[in-house]
Amino acid sequence: MTAYNDGGFRKDFRPREMFKAVCAECNQECEVPFKPTEGKPVYCRDCYKKKKGY
Fold it and tell me: Which of 35, 40, 41, 43 is deepest in the core (most CB within 10 A)?
């Protein structure tokens, strides 16, 4: 059984595991829903929105 249906929504309502990271833009500590990869930049929610133009 998969955790996602065809629409991409989570079927299980368990809390998502979050990982601590430091934003590459503003240097503030943040949490992301994926394990950061060394050498790849991670952005906090605010900086990510600015970069994507939301």
Answer: 43
